[in-house]
Amino acid sequence: MWVVPLKLCLARAMPRVGMRHSNNSFVPPHCPNPNCKYHLQLDAGWRFKCIGTFGRQVAPHRIQRFLCLHCRRSFSTQTFSTTYWLKRPDILPQLLTKTTGCMANRQIARDLKVAPSTIDRQLSRLGRHCLLYHAATMQSAEPARRVAIDGFVSFEHSQYWPFHHHLAIEPESDFIVYFTDSEVRRSGTMTPAQKRKRERLEAALGRPDPKAVYGDVKHLLEVVAGSQPHLTVLSDDHRAYPQAIKGLLCEVTHLVTSSKERRDADNPLFPVNLADMLLRHSSANHKRETIAWSKRRQASAERLAVFLVWRNYMKSRREKRPRGPTPAEARGTVDHRVTVEELLGRRWFVSRTSLPARWVDYYWRAISTRALPRQRRHELSYAA
Ligand SMILES: [Zn+2]
Fold first, then answer.
1. N or C: which end of the chain has fewer CB within 10 A?
2. Buried b vs exposed e over 105-142: b needs ≥16 C-beta within 10 Å?
3. Average pLDDT in the 254-265 region?
4. Are 375 and 298 in contact (CB under 8 A)?
5. Is 312 helix (H, G, I), strand (E, B) or coil?
6. Domains along the chain with CATH numbers
7. What's the CA-to-centroid distance between 23 and ligand 1, angstroms?
8. pLDDT tens, position by position, 334-359
């Protein structure tokens, strides 16, 4: 759930006695060390000092260093920047539009003349940043009282490993509130040879949990409901949904629309159908018959986080009204369209932001892909 706000908006500069500024007016808002008492505590008692500068190849060329006088951790202005430790800080701002403009990772790498692994790493960082940005925004936002939910079908590694991204959308604004995912078993029409291959793979690597959809949709709705006493849920007739809803603590009005109903603008599930279409249209990894499918569900979640922020805060709600409000503006969560510069204007610290449980897994890259023996997790202690 969108739990206890950490008053992130209070992360402001405090006047400090004896502080020197070398070349700009940057004042560190807090100590970056999660183990220091001045990491979360924002009061005038925090003392730090400037300890010189260092030079680097890209602008700004001189970076101010600081020392926390409480925990003795040294840091710099870069520690509070989204481009912390990046040799190519120019890539991150370009990734957002390229990713949501349906370019695959290798196409972006060719376009920017960098190694594909650079794009993989920076896209993963952008995804983590977007998870934190949305979670931090939701801590002070109005909760959604009505949501339409749906399972967006894709696959990881090969078509033998399909999965669903469960999306919760507020119908009145088209705002994507939260998402989770579930592994599912390959189904549908298969040739005898495909069935045999599925058996072989499942015998070697295990079968997806048949209750995964139930558990992940329940978690999705728990986070959306938060502490509200009542929630209205619009969905299709998937058999796991009533069960998941029954497990919730709040009172739920469940409005079911058959998945066989015509999917036009009059369909009550139009907001999720629209989000599904837009997601497929905007993401290279979800296109039909693509060769850029997700190799890991983890990376698909990171791309989806980028899509969520772009869709909610940066893109107009209606395609035919490009200057119209974004979903976040339509629901009153923000009062303006967020720009790339604003989105990347500050680094969000995971230790200062409450993430829902599944997003904690996404942040630390803890989602495993069965078919891969080795999976890279996010274990760097200083990096974003
Ligand atoms: Zn400190």
1. N
2. beebbeebeeeeebbbebbbbbbbbbbbbbbbbbbebe
3. 91
4. yes
5. helix
6. 1-80 (no CATH), 97-363 (3.30.420.10)
7. 23
8. 999 999 999 999 999 999 999 999 99
Burial class (CB in 10 A: 0-12, 13-18, 19+), 280: middle
- Strand 74-76 and strand 62-68: the pairing is antiparallel
| Ligand 1 centre distance from Cα of residue 72 (Å) | 6
Least reliable range by pLDDT among 30-39, 188-197, 258-267: 258-267
- The neighbouring-strand residues paired with 254 are 233
CA distance 363 to 382: 14
Q: In whole angstroms, what is the distance from residue 180 CA to residue 215 CA?
A: 10
* The pLDDT value given to residue 381: 66
- Is residue 201 over pLDDT 70? yes
Report the percentage of the chain scoring pLDDT > 90. Answer: 74
The Cα 6–Cα 355 span in angstroms is 11
DSSP string, 178-205: EEEEEE----S---HHHHHHHHHHHHHH
Q: What is the distance in A from the centroid of ligand 1 to the CA of 70? A: 5
Residue 46 Cα to ligand 1 middle (Å): 8
Return mean pLDDT, the chain.
90
- 49-68 mean pLDDT: 91
Q: Distance (Å, rounded) from C-alpha 48 to C-alpha 69? A: 5
Report how far ligand 1's centroid is from the alpha carbon of 1 (Å): 29
CA pair distance 6, 9, nearest whole angstrom? 8
Output the CA 349–ligand 1 centroid distance in Å.
Answer: 14
C-alpha 382 to ligand 1 mean position (Å):
14
Quote the ligand 1 centre to 30 CA distance (angstroms). 8
- Look at residue 76 and tell me whether its pLDDT is greater than 70: yes
Residue 375: predicted pLDDT: 78
Å from CA of 68 to ligand 1 middle: 5
Please give the distance, rounded to the nearest whole angstrom, from the Cα atom of residue 73 to the centre of ligand 1: 6
Q: What is the pLDDT of residue 98?
A: 95
Give the distance (Å) from ligand 1 centre to CA of residue 22: 21
Q: What is the pLDDT of residues 97-143, one digit of tens each?
A: 999 998 999 999 999 999 999 999 999 999 999 999 999 999 999 99
Using the mean position of ligand 1's atoms as its centre, give its distance from the Cα of residue 34 in Å: 8
pLDDT value of residue 8: 31
